[in-house]
Structure formats: structure tokens, C-alpha cells
Amino acid sequence: MPIVTHLAIQNLRILNNVAVDLAPQANLFTGPNASGKTTVLEALYVLARGRSFRETQWTAIIAEREESLRVFARVFDQGKTVPVGIEHDRHQAVIRIKGETQRNTRTLLEQLPVQLIAPDSHRLIEQGPQYRRQYLDWGVFHVEQRFLGAWQRYRRALKQRNAALKAPAKDAVLEPWELEMSSAAEEIDRYRAHYVETLSPHLDDLGRELLNLEELGVRYLKGWREGELAMQLVTSRTSDAQQGYTRAGPHRADLELSIGNHKAVQRISRGQQKALVFALTLAQARLLNERVDRKPILLVDDFGAELDDHHLKRIWSVLQESKSQVLLTGTDLKERLSTQTPKDALFHVERGEVTRVL
What we know:
- The chain contains 11 helices and 15 strands.
- The chain is an alpha/beta fold.
- The chain has a 6-stranded antiparallel beta sheet with strand order 2-1-4-5-6-7, with helices on one face.
- A hairpin with a 2-residue loop joins strand 6 (93-97) and strand 7.
- Helix 6 (171-211) packs across helix 7 (229-235) and helix 6 (171-211) packs across helix 9.
- It is globular.
- The two termini are 24 Å apart.
């Protein structure tokens, strides 16, 4: 189980030179709005994913009048302490793990399985399927080593088919890419379907624990009709060419969340949506621990927002029981969360300064 024991942040927004020793379980960051609380979580997310969850451009998160940012952590995992760092200027990133430069972010994802729950996480419930695919594929990536290779094969073939559609190219050019897409798609579909099947019992349990829901369901939609994808791609060449892109395949997959016979988004309030996001995230955490004996690090921004005390305390109890390392932000966490253990820590954040107070 990875645990970040030390986190150092340089030149990320208003955090110019911050270093904190983290507790192995709950780390609560409190303070006024715009003090830098969310940026602490953003720093660890950058280190784990190689990108920000708040901006797409690196220039937007590097501190003013600085040329680069740096995030460094000591990660205790499987009895060893591993140094992990990322430095990013306005053009490129340099990633180092155990002092060795890495070629891509895959090693970061493997070293630091991090999940985020933020104020906009309700998009997972009420907006487009791309958010649910991201959720699904994060989980599949961490439990099925072969998934990434299949996904990369599929994406390469999809890119080539889309380019050929726009050319436009003859059928003989399209056919090999369609066969490659179909082969990779079948593999992706198997991994995803099995993942959702094994995730469902955990989601059922957490639906009851956090929302008192007895009929919470999740259904995997693979992104194309039953039958071979290759045949469907052949019959859709003309219409796909008119649209300029491929409209069937695993890149169009979705998860359908339901309560009884209704879509979940139609049956629950915004506060309940946030509780459902916790259920989805914690279900993944339980499955990851079950399948590969690892626990993700959970980042929770503005924990108390849109949650009444009843749901807040239920979620807090389940977070504590999970034994995962958690970083939470909020303006009134100390007052609303009544219990703490010696494995928890409380920090005060103000004007870009982070101070441990407990």
C-alpha cells in the first residue's frame, strides 16, 4: 500500500516552497478560501498523473515570475521508501523515480494510484460518458496489466481509420485498420466487462452504507452493437466518412448508473450525487485492494461541500475504515469531523503557507 510520507512543492501557484510530513491515514487541510488548500492536492495529483486536474496548460499553474515547478515525494511502499519527483518548465516534464529519469507517465500511475473527488466530480453522474470511461479505465489499468497495451493498439488503429475516412481513402486502406481495431476492441471489452462485474458487489455494499440505497445498479455499455466490431465498421464507412470520425467502438463505451428502474441522476439530489461519487470511488479502492493488494491514495477537495452532517459522518467513517491514506480540504473540517486517530494529521493553510497543527 503506497503512503506518501513527505511532500515538497516548489513554485506551484502560490505554494512557492512548501514541505510537509504526511500522516499515514487522514490528512486534513483547513484554512480560508484561496489560501492554497486545493493546490496541495493538485501537487500530489500532478506527481501521480503527470497533469493538473484544474488546468490543461502548465503555464497556468507555474508560479508567477518562475520558469518551472517541482513536486517531490517520499513514498513508502512494500517496505521500501521510493523517491518520486516531477519537474515541469513551460515546455516539458522531467520525471524521476528512485533517481532514474522515466520516459512517460505510466510509471507514475503505477507508483502512485491516486483518485480525486472534487466539487465538480458530480460530472461523473450527470454529464457525458467520457467521465465514466475515465473512471472505468483508471480501475481496469490498475488491476489488468494487459489492458494498456490493448488500448494503445486500439487508439493507433482508430487514429489511422479516422485519417483514412477524412482523406477519403479506398476500402482496401480501411480494412486492415478495422481488423486491428476489432481485435483490440474485443480484448478491451473483456477486461472492462470483467472489471464491472467484480466492482458491482462493492458498489452495492457502499450504496447501502452511504446512501441507504438497496437498488443501486451499474451496467456496462461497450460502445457498439452485439457482434463483431469489424463488420459494423464496414457497414458504417459511408456515414462515418460524412461525420468525419468513427462512431462505434470502445472509445464510445459508457457506464449506466441506475436506482431501481430509473437513471441515478433522475432520482438523487446534488448532495446524494456527491455521496454516490464517494461510493463509486471507494468501491474501486476496495476492488483494487482485493485484486492486487494495493490501496489508492484518495484526494478529497472541499469535503464538506453539499454534504449534510449525516452523510458527511457516514462517509468519514467509511474513509477511516478503508485505512487508505486520504488528503482532505475544507474550511471547517476540525469542527465537523469529531474523531481523529494518532495516524491522522491536521494542517492549517494560509497565504500559501502550510503548518501542521496536530
